[in-house]
Amino acid sequence: MSQNYKVKDLSLAEQGRLDIQWAESRMPVMMEFRKQYSKTKPLKGQRIAGCLHVTKETAVLIETLREAGAEISWSGCNPLSTNDAVAAALAKNGISIYAWNGLSRDEFYWCIEKTLEFRPTLTLDDGADLIMTVHTRKPEYIKDVIGGTEETTTGVHRLRAMADEGALKYPVIAINDAETKWDFDNVYGTGQSSWDGVIRATSVLVAGKTFVSAGYGHCGKGCSERAKGMGANVIVTEIKPTAALKATLDGHRVMQMDEAAKHGDIFITATGMKDVLVKRHFEVMKDGAIVCNTGHYDCEINIPDLESLCESKRTIRPNCEEYTLKNGRRIYLLAQGRLVNLAAAEGHPSEVMDMSFANQFLGMVKLAQDGKAMKPGVHDITEEQDQMLAGIKLRTQGYSIDKLTPEQVRYAKAYAEGT
Ligand code: ARJ
Questions:
Q1: pLDDT value at 1 more than 60
Q2: Is the whole-model pTM more than 0.70?
Q3: Which residues line ligand 1 (CB under 6 A)?
Q4: Does domain 189-343 have CATH number 3.40.50.720?
Q5: Where are the domains of the chain?
Q6: Are 124 and 70 in contact (CB under 8 A)?
């Protein structure tokens, strides 16, 4: 049988399996789903092409999808985020996987196209590169696809824009927009994992430093809250008045990046926008400033601008490049401007990915059962699924909460009663 995988080094499989078992021990919702759905196999007959960071948590999702009856073929959604040991463990366990850390752009798309060879019926995406590839490079495959899911904010934005132009040819569920995803993964997950990446790449002391968060959406807020907890003083830059206002009420300073660039010691971009840090910012940064990005795409830090100011550069630590500028000051770029939490660390902790991926899993089941009746476009997850999922997570953590009495249910529905 031809080899249906390409990974960096199969001999890493043993370590990868330990990583996966660690994640399983901290993803109780996924393990409950695996137990339940391995019996009913709602994904039997489905072929899932996935394009999502190959981490120990993703491996739990992949092996749960297979236990639920699906055939899987997988690629990583970022050239620098694949955990090679986990990829090896998945390959050794018979998963068709095409992923290794340090992919070139051509190799990235080669991997995606390999996962399309079995003509998927479902696509599971993070950043919409898989869906885009199907629509642009393999449109003949679209007729086999029932639907897809999308993990992240910028991927959902991209797909909504595509749907607005009538260019999205199958239904896609916006996983990111589930509260049990964005309000936990994007805030608490990104907040912790971004700093995990910064600290692994630099081992700097955060206390006392001036941290600049470019963006105060869910991710920027998470990064800022964790920075404050570690003793940094926080500056927030924004383009959205309400987000900036919230930052002031959370006790952070707010200013334009032109000013913040002069004061920051550590910068994290979390905007989803391009050209957030550009030439005029690098020119005024302090000697030793550290810049990195935690957005999905690597367009937030304008690296050609940084290169244009640079006299010399060297990799001084893994995932840490020192740019010596013509003005004599040094700027440190982490993870080549790619998402620092996955390229320089392991991404969000398993506990929070448990709910994100429970939404992905339920999205696949929903599409398998109802997808053929769903219209092409972006579909949201229901409030009841969010509350159901949060309830399971609470239960697995040993928490119980109150319940409305029948009288309270009646009151909530009635509107006549005033004060
Ligand atoms: C897999 C992860 C992990 C992790 O849900 C997060 C998001 O929105 C993506 C943006 O690309 C990354 C994804 N994410 C964060 N941590 N995916 N395993 N441990």
A1: no
A2: yes
A3: 53, 55, 57-58, 126-127, 151-152, 185, 189, 193, 296, 339, 347-348, 353, 356
A4: yes
A5: 10-183+348-396, 189-343
A6: no
